[in-house]
User: What shape does this take?
Amino acid sequence: MKNPKKNAPKRYFDVEEKSSEQKEQDVEVYNIKNNKRTDNKRIQKRKPHKNFKGKAPIDPEKLEAHSRGEGVGKGVKHPLHAAKLRKKERKYTYAQEQAARAEILLTEDHGGLEVDEDVKTTAISQKIIAENVDISAATKIFELNLDFGPYRAKYSRNGRHLLLGSKKGHLAAFDWVTKKLHFEINVMESIHDISWMHTETMVAAAQKEWLYMYDNTGTELHCVKKMDKILRMEFLPYHFLLAAVNEFGFMTWLDISIGEVVGHYNNHLGRTSVIAQNPYNATICLGNSKGVVSLWSPTIKEPLAKILCHKTPLTAIAVDNRGMYMATSGVDRSMKIWDIRNLDGPVQHYRLRSAPVDLEFSQKDMLAVGLDEVVEIYNNCCSQTTDRPYLRHRMAKTITNFKYCPYEDVLGIGTRSGFTSIIVPGSGEPNFDALESNPFQNKKQRKEAEVKALLDKIPAELITLNPFDITEVDVPSLQEQMEAKKKLLYLKPKKMDFTPRHKKKGKTQIARKKIIKQVARKEFIEQAKEAQKALDLPQPESAKKPSFGVLDRFVPTVKTKK
Amino acid sequence: MEDIEDTDLVALEHDRLISAVSKLDKTQHITEPTRNEPTNLNSEFNLIKRTNKLNIDNVAKVLEDTAHHVQISKKLKKTQSGAKVLSKPLEKPQAERIKRATGYEETKKKVGRWDPVVARSRTVDYVTFPIKHVTAKLEPTSDFLTKFQLKSELEKELEEVDPQPMVEDEEEDEPIYPKSYEEMVEYRQHLAKMRAQQSYKAAKAKRQSKIKSKKFHRVLKKEKLKQELKEFEELQKKDPEEALKKLEAIEKARALERHTLRHKSTGKWAKNKLIRAKYDKEVRQQLADQLAVGRSLTKKLQDNQSSDDEADDEPTPTFTLSQDPFNPWMVQRSDKSNVNAEFDFGYKKFVQNKMNKQKESDDSDSDDNDVSEKDVLNEKLFKKEKSPSPEPMEEKITIPKANKEKLAGPKSKKGKKAAAKTKAKKPLATSNWDVEIVDDTDNNKPKDNLEYLKLKNQKTRAVIDEELMETSSKTAEGMANKEKDETISELVKAAQTPVQEPAADSNIDPNRFIEVKPKYLNTALSQVENEYDQLDDDQVVPRVNIEEVFEEDDVVASFRQEKEDEINKDKPEDINLTLPGWGAWGGKGVKPQKRKKNRFILKAPPKMPRRDENKGDIIIKEFKDPKLAVHKVKDVPFPFESVKDYEASIRAPLGNTFIPEKAHKKLIRPSVITKAGKIIEPMDEEELLVPKNRNFKNESVIKLLGRKK
Assistant: This one.
């Protein structure tokens, strides 16, 4: 075909050169009309603007704060799923970045007391504070003189409403900012404890015999006879649980959304009125007369953990908002701070001059310590050892309990003869999340939030020491399953790596101690070396051996023991 | 009389007439006797080949007479000689097969164009339908208004008289245009190409099937092997995972091979050869080659790690059996025969070589610091062996890596166990037999001696996981070398003992160590207390420390006791199943044998360390909460192969109360979005040209989705 004869007649089966070329190239032609979508030009990226350099860089620390931990590694072999997971990871990082960027919207900063060097912050009394703040803030310092004996006070979750209950049966709820009274009744029985429910329209009062519930007009809604002789109670807002402990040491967990008791058992601790909830994992901390703090959940009739805190009876427990630290105090006039998340400690040990009546952490981790009729507030007393209080307030009446008002720099103190509200600068969270709890909530928002909260209700079974238990695979039962499958014939067992994400291998005491010991040893060695240098002892000089040149090799070498 | 004659005559006439008339009919009433013989065309008994071919020579012969016809006959003959006889077409099934094959390739290519499109739409976060966004084309106002023209009176009347037939909305079919000339040509070319391909293939198949040359087939096989190796190498570079899979496939082939027991001495061919082997050396060699192939196929491909471990544990030197060099079982194929081996076999070799190379490079890379004691030891060992090492590549090279691993960190117990297991399973007997040509028996002797010594030495070690080694030569020199060898064994032992982690100091008392020093705070004294204090002063009551009053000494002790109990409660206990007197004498004063007793004690599994261990006065209960377990995930779903990965995949919240709204929207977007009320047309070929589809380059996904299942 390359050199066709000149005169050769053209045959019908002779193929044209052109088409043969086409055959060689092996290119196929499809007739598709070009249109806009198939145009390449459209995806050309826009050039970055000269003046606009792109998004601002994010502070890596902030980014780290919003991190959700290590992502999916390269364990997934299936290319399609691996690609999808990679995309998902990218979205997670995007979410993280967005969250870090959104911090710019948290404009408020928590304040604080600033004094000259020679002045102590404890010297600043409420009077001075009231003189120096604006009028509306100054109204937050007030005192109620009430006649019905020792009062207990509690704020609602959004910090707008205040509930007062007295030993002599006085029960009152009001908007403490506007001082608008919701209701005020006398239940004609002793009230041992009070609590707000999920909204400000319902309150619970532990009266002499039974637990009663009232609405915001003082109408009795329920009388829960299953819960009798309650001493103390705590409301867990995300689980809709009212946890109560009674005179005989019975714990009762009432689900107020369905009106059912989800847990009722004897804690075998005897009568105890020292209780606190851990907001991190919704366990209840109970302190008993032997100085042991035990953590409880509704479904398990044994304590999840026990800590021997003091050798004497406990007087008060407080857990901070993030669930990091627990403060306990005993009759031995000591106060200890514990690492409640890792169940370790004590982190700090303080000796006071008298035994505290009550302890309370603010949203910004300021610890209020009630000493009969004095309230002392300590700043930064958990991670480091403080030596003086941040603020001190002395009253003429003994304290029964106190609570920090959420999202306000206010501490409300229930006393023997009424209620006192004082300002503690820098104690409250300045930026509130209106979807979480809104101090300026109107009726409609409240209703909306109630429905939403009910939909997001967490089952009582999920109350455990580690709230992230639920995100972990049940490895033992998975292993069991795999073993069972292995026993089946003709079934290829799946390969599985059982190591969990969090190996729970934080530095234990021992490890820490080892480090300390090693450091000490190193230091000692260094010191010894330096001492030797300082002494300047003459080094034993090795005498230079005479050289024999080439014949060196025949000189016997003396072996030295190492 | 006359009458009679008359009648006679009449009768004759009549007969003639009748015959004449009957002749008019022309049918023969009496058929002539004919002979009916079966033709040879469709006889089933005697198949006679009969050509229908026209013999042109015969035809031309007739024409030879005249001069004019001679010309014609010549021409005829010329054409006859020039014409090629068309080859016999292939058998139908074969032809069909080829047709199918070419057709399949064609279709594959055609359908394969869609692979990236499909792969992209599967990988992408979300797809929206309809794919084509119909631009809202605005109608010109004038056009729009024309539709609203009023009818005139005349029109209306006309309509009444002759109502217009209802015109059905014609479905506007795509007009089918006949193909243009170019298209027609193209189409025909395409068809021709297909046919040509088919015919090429057919011809090739036919040609190749007829080749009987062994050499040719050998070369073919070799070529194939080379090609595959090349591909494999490429694959290893491009997609190591795929390469691994291929390796696995090879492994599978090996397993199959084991099943089929090919390359053994059981086949017909082998049996025949065996008979001749007695007399013919060459045949013996062939047989040996064959067996070697079989052995190498059935040998398990050594896992990197396990082999490393092994090399680490006992460097098995190569040795030869000098006893019977003619024994075909002992003779390993020379490298030459490697070429003839099966394809898989070649693979294996290739991979091994590769690994060796890599390790060598690793070795050279490693710094001087990396050279551990063990390395030195191994070196020493090898020196002592003094083997000329015709093929000790394997061991020598695997050692450094093992060392490296050791350096990287003490291996976990589990990993070690696994390694040990693999070691136990591996049939090493086949792998390390190096058989050489008969002549150099002398060369082998010293090596053999050493080997013998080594075996003895290994016996004393009594390691269960050891490989079995066979040696038969016994030399007296062994005793002399014993001492030397003991040192070797020591060295080996030293190498074997893992670097022990410094045991945690047991004498640290957590309570004694960091005791948080109490900080005395200058707190305010309450007024009330002060009053009491003053009272106290007046009454002269000795001041008592309140702590001492309330402090109970036994609080701590009882708490510790409680913790102890808790720990003991969870501890799994050994189960003793001994029956006194069972299989032995029983009774008073008879002590059961310790060994026997131990046999019947079921050891409890080792206890996991408790969370509250070393934490002082803290008890953390360790129990599985069945109510929580209901909510927990018990199985890891498909794409995940480790618990860690799965847990990581569900670590982040999606709700808008946890993350910013924008991210939330992004995370919960459905994977398929359809526009309401829109007809979703199937894709057309235009989609192939869309840049985003063209630029999709995730080869592995394309391959996965394009793969024929």
